[in-house]
Specification:
single chain, alpha/beta, ABC transporter transmembrane region fold, Rossmann fold, 2 domains, 4-stranded antiparallel sheet, 23 helices, 10 strands, 9% strand, elongated
């Protein structure tokens, strides 16, 4: 490695680590050691190979000096050829050990990435829905990508560099002192001129890089928002293309200016280091040549010292920034551990039991619930705020009690924000109650296994979310072994066969981001088809027909009636026409059940349900027509 290359590496590491300096944490080091435990055999082999490679690196300059001495001393051809063969053998051995060293470091680093990513991914999957509603998706993905990669560098690059550089430095220094302690002293005194520019320029470039990164992030966010279908539509309806272009161009121009400044700083730095490198070599050849002419040392020793100089400066420069690199890696580890240390609010009990098979009841017994606070479910760094809101959530359910017998249907109606969807989310245990109990088949869901709850309860949500995947994958997310016949059957029941048949690849057609190939009603029917395929014993329909037109709603209602036959159902609906046949209707307002009865009973009672029904089915006003009803 040349001195210029070493300096560039120093500049790079300093530039990328300036913002992450902080003290070492013993606890973090202990956790890193536990993650590295499964790789300890490869780590040991890696350290041994690194030592051997470093020793071979120092051996080549010494052999080169011996060759020069052999030539000037008029040694025989056999001696020179033998030294040449030894140098070739050392080069081959160094190359072989270098490949092994790189394989070991890559295997350890990639293995660590696998372990960390899997741990974070599994942990995040266990987090409650409230975690995802507060967390910025981009910040969370960054932990799985950028921070995990930063942690990997601690093993694949930093550890390898420290071990190799320490051994190379010690061997090179010993060799140089043995050849000439005077020249060694002079070259060491030049080290600050070699190292300090890299550190100072690195700090300056780090500031420029952070500024450029901020501008790039802003441009990226802007493009992401503007280039999505809803964002592009919004700009076309209300925005100004000229203003949008000007604002984007301002950011892009700033990035251009920073790029020019960075290029000039790097060029000045490179030229300065070239001068320092030439000065160092000039001193070695000048002083060494004088010593050789005066008989104080051999010519071969001068050549060896010149070659060893790179073996001395390169490790010293790298080690000068090793602490910064290690601290940068530590920050990455701590950011990953920060996510792993956030405890999931919902855990499976150690003695959890399976829910019973067959038709089951659903019961809420004096349930009280408040959404968890930010401190319970989130991190300030994931929300990109300085401090999380410490306030506890306001109680939104106040003593909710009702029971749905096996195979029966209960409907929840009421104003928006009354607590209906919150009640529905407690049944599949998306949240845990603060007081009271939610029971399925007379077993508290907190005492049931997670798998059995997921298998027993199916839910159709309001948004009809689809992944950027095929129709087949979106339908069979919980049953990947589903046959095509089964898929087409549920599509038939959801009245989607004509839609899917018209797609270019049928079941294997990629639906696009958030299912853009489908209309809102078609996406909703896809989620209904997914539940029909799973055949759960408890079905929750949260505004399942909210995005359907009248004809689609009638078709899907037929499919839902068939699907709900013999199953326990909880239906949330604003369209009261869809829940008239429910066995029981609960009117929810402000987190309380205020009315209970059948459709006819509630209409006859003349309470809140009758008011909702009258408002919804009131005849709309027609201009110029007297006596028309006006909906409230």
């Amino acid at each position: 490695m040349s001195m210029e290359t070493a300096a560039w590496q120093s500049l790079y590491s300093t530039m990328h680590a300036q913002q992450d300096r902080q003290p070492f944490s013993r606890a973090t080091l202990g956790r890193i050691a536990r993650f590295a435990g499964p790789h300890r055999r490869r780590l040991t082999g890696f350290l041994v190979v690194s030592v051997i490679t470093a020793a071979l690196t120092v051996a080549t300059p010494l052999l080169a000096g011996r060759v020069i001495d052999a030539i000037t001393g008029a040694a025989g051809l056999s001696t020179i050829l033998a030294l040449a063969l030894i140098i070739a053998a050392v080069a081959l051995a160094e190359a072989a050990f270098g490949i092994v060293q790189r394989w070991l470091s890559a295997t350890i680093g990639e293995g660590l990435i696998l372990d960390l990513r899997t741990a974070v991914y599994d942990h995040v999957q266990a987090m409650p829905v409230a975690f995802f509603s507060r967390t910025r998706t981009g910040a969370l993905v960054s932990r799985l990508n950028n921070d995990v990669l930063g942690a990997q560098r601690a093993f694949s690059d930093t550890l390898a560099g420290i071990v190799s550089n320490v051994v190379t430095l010690l061997l090179a220094f010993i060799a140089m002192v043995s050849l000439s302690w005077e020249i060694t002293l002079v070259t060491v005194l030049l080290l600050p001129i070699f190292v300090l520019p890299a550190r100072r320029m690195g700090a300056r470039l780090a500031r420029l890089q952070r500024e450029a990164a901020n501008h790039n992030a802003t441009m990226s966010n802007r493009m992401t928002e503007r280039f999505s279908a809803p964002g592009a539509t919004l700009i076309k309806l209300f925005g100004s293309p000229a203003r949008e272009s000007a604002e984007f161009a301002t950011r892009a121009a700033r990035v251009r200016d920073i790029g020019v400044r960075s290029a000039m700083v790097q060029e000045v730095f490179y030229i300065a280091l070239m001068l320092v490198s030439a000065l160092a070599l000039a001193l070695v050849y000048g002083v060494g040549g004088y010593f050789a002419l005066t008989g104080r040392m051999e010519a071969g020793a001068v050549v060896a010292l010149a070659l060893l100089l790179t073996r001395l400066y390169a490790p010293l420069t790298a080690l000068a920034n090793a602490r910064v690199e290690v601290m940068s890696a530590m920050v990455s580890f701590e950011r990953v551990f920060e996510v792993l240390d956030l405890p999931p609010l919902i855990r499976q009990a150690p003695d959890a039991r399976e829910l019973p098979q067959g038709p089951v009841s659903v019961e809420l017994d004096d349930v009280r619930f408040a959404y968890p606070s930010a401190q319970q479910v989130s991190l300030a760094s994931l929300e990109e705020v300085a401090i999380l809101d410490p306030r506890a959530g306001r109680e939104v359910l106040h003593g909710i009690s009702f029971r749905v017998e096996p195979g029966r249907t209960v409907a929840l109606v009421g104003s928006s924000g009354a607590g209906k969807s919150t009640i529905a989310s407690l049944i599949p245990r998306l949240f845990d109650v603060d007081a009271g109990a939610v029971r399925i088949g007379d077993l508290d869901v907190r005492e049931a296994t997670t798998a059995s709850v997921q298998r027993t309860v199916g839910m159709v949500t309001q948004d009809g979310h689809l992944f950027h995947d095929t129709v087949r994958a979106n339908l069979s997310i919980s049953r990947p072994d589903t046959t095509d016949d089964e898929l087409w059957e549920v599509l038939e029941r959801a009245r989607l066969v004509p839609v899917v048949s018209a797609l270019p690849d049928g079941l294997d057609t990629v639906v696009g981001e958030r299912g853009y190939r489908f209309s809102g009603g078609e996406r909703q029917r896809m989620t209904i088809a997914r539940v029909l395929l799973d055949q759960p014993q408890v079905v929750i329909l949260d505004e399942a027909t909210s995005n359907l037109d009248s004809s689609s709603e009638a078709a899907v209602q037929e499919a839902l009636t068939e699907a709900l036959a013999g199953r326990t159902a909880v239906i949330i609906a604003h369209r009261l026409s869809t829940i008239r046949a429910a066995d029981q209707i609960l009117v929810v307002e402000d987190g309380r059940i205020i009315e209970t009865g059948s459709h006819g009973e509630l209409l006859a009672a003349g309470g809140r349900y009758e008011e909702l029904h009258r408002t919804q089915f009131a005849e709309p006003s027609v201009p110029g027509r007297a006596g028309s009803a006006v909906p409230s």
